[in-house]
Amino acid sequence: QVQLVESGGGLVQPGGSLRLSCAASGNNFRIYVMGWYRQAPGKQREQVVTTSTSGGVTNYVDFGKGRFTINRDNAKKTVYLQMDSLEPKDTDVYYCTARPQDSSKNYWGQGTQVPVSS
Region 28-56: what's the mean pLDDT? Predict the structure, then answer.
């Protein structure tokens, strides 16, 4: 089982940047497909991006293409989400997720808040 802890959230102005981190504990980090989701109050959680076990394949949702970048460091058991050109509509709680590549079970972090406001 993997445990995930997100960090790096906080207030940012429109047009600004932020980098979120997700540190994983436990063994076999390399078997997990990692991803980021986000959720606004009263709305469904939506996918932002996922990355394969090696980091070689990424899948961005349209709103993140060209603005968000995911990277994983398997040696550090950490995945990052670089967010640039942030807009007020990006205001959400961002969650890290891990899914074993041969399973449909997702593990979630506790989330980190990202308010985008002037």
Answer: 94
